[in-house]
Design a protein that fits this description.
Bound molecules: iron/sulfur cluster, FE2/S2 (inorganic) cluster
Strand content: 5-15%
Structural class: alpha+beta
Order of helices and strands: HHEEHEEEEEHHHHHHH
Helix content: 25-40%
Number of strands: 7
Number of helices: 10
Length: about 290
């Protein structure tokens, strides 16, 4: 029985001697999960199947809803349905007070990062057919819950702000002349530019949960500028001072949880390690 997501890259691993890149490993894992998922045996045969969602509920402003609990929703399953589709159906059909964030529905806006069956994932990027059923849906761990599946992202945004996630005036020459970047340098920073600020990596990191660590997303953002050849040297120096400070890169214990959950497959742990090396080089003194 075929699954509902086409297998597009069967030739990818023809070279068995080569070490698969992290992204290829993750894609292979996803394929494997699909093939062994009980739903993949039946999905597509009938539109009448029902998927059970167990959804975290909490509302501090409503009497009787202040005690966290799980509600069950039974949603008709259709081929290609995502977790976000199922949540929208549940809200529109059964309970209009069910609260969660979403916008683009195509893994671009980063607003629907959730804790789905025990892992941080985007609701709109996660196929129900790839999951064990019933599907358990919770807010991102290590964040304060505002209501139901909505968490307070304030701390995450503060950490991103701490690394000044933008080019600075010093980088923009008079008259706004075009600044070219060579192809190799673009390739080097390409993955780091893909961040959609979803917060999944921060939520997965138990060092960040302690509250005094910049976290993988902010450090990746610093990497994106430090490694960009167009950035002014003095600005790079300031950034390095931020990331090598007490709450910076040295707190990372290379657990790889951030890299595992990032929906854009950014090699976060590798970027953090590379910035550790830059920080060491930055402090070498020769007499
Ligand atoms: S680095 Fe990945 S997981 Fe972290 S905020 Fe950006 S897109 Fe989300
Ligand atoms: S709704 Fe925008 S990333 Fe999922």
């Amino acid at each position: 029985m075929s699954t509902n997501v086409p297998d597009t890259d069967t030739e990818t691993h023809a070279d068995t001697d080569a070490q698969p890149a992290p992204q290829q490993r993750r894609l292979a894992k996803k394929r494997e999960r699909r093939e062994h998922s009980p739903q993949s045996e039946t999905s597509g045969d009938t539109d009448q199947e029902t998927v059970e969602l167990k959804v975290f509920r909490y509302d501090p402003e409503v009497e009787g809803k202040r005690e966290p609990r799980f509600d069950d929703f039974h949603v008709p399953f259709t081929k290609g349905m995502t977790v976000l589709d199922a949540l929208i159906y549940a809200r529109d059909t059964f309970d209009s007070s069910l609260t969660f964030r979403h916008s683009c529905r195509q893994a671009i806006c980063g607003s629907d990062a959730l804790f789905i069956n025990g892992a941080q994932r985007l609701g709109c990027q996660t196929q129900l057919s790839d999951l064990e059923w019933p599907v358990r849906i919770e807010p991102l761990p290590h964040q304060e819950v505002v209501k139901d599946l909505v968490v307070d992202m304030e701390h995450f945004y503060e950490q991103m702000d701490a690394v000044d996630p933008f080019f600075k005036d010093e980088d923009v020459p008079d008259g706004l002349e075009e600044q070219r970047q060579d192809r190799e340098n673009r390739e080097k920073i390409k993955m780091s530019t893909r961040c959609i600020w979803c917060g999944a990596c921060m939520s997965s990191c138990n060092i960040a949960a302690g509250g005094n660590y910049l976290g993988p997303a902010a450090i990746n953002k610093a990497y994106r500028f430090v490694m960009d050849e167009r950035e002014d040297g003095d600005v790079t120096q300031e950034r390095l001072e931020t990331i090598e400070a007490e709450e910076g890169v040295w707190r990372c214990q290379t657990q790889f949880s951030c890299t595992e959950v990032c929906p854009k497959d950014i090699p976060l742990t590798e970027h953090i390690q590379e910035l550790k090396r830059e920080a060491v080089k930055n402090n070498l003194k020769f007499w």
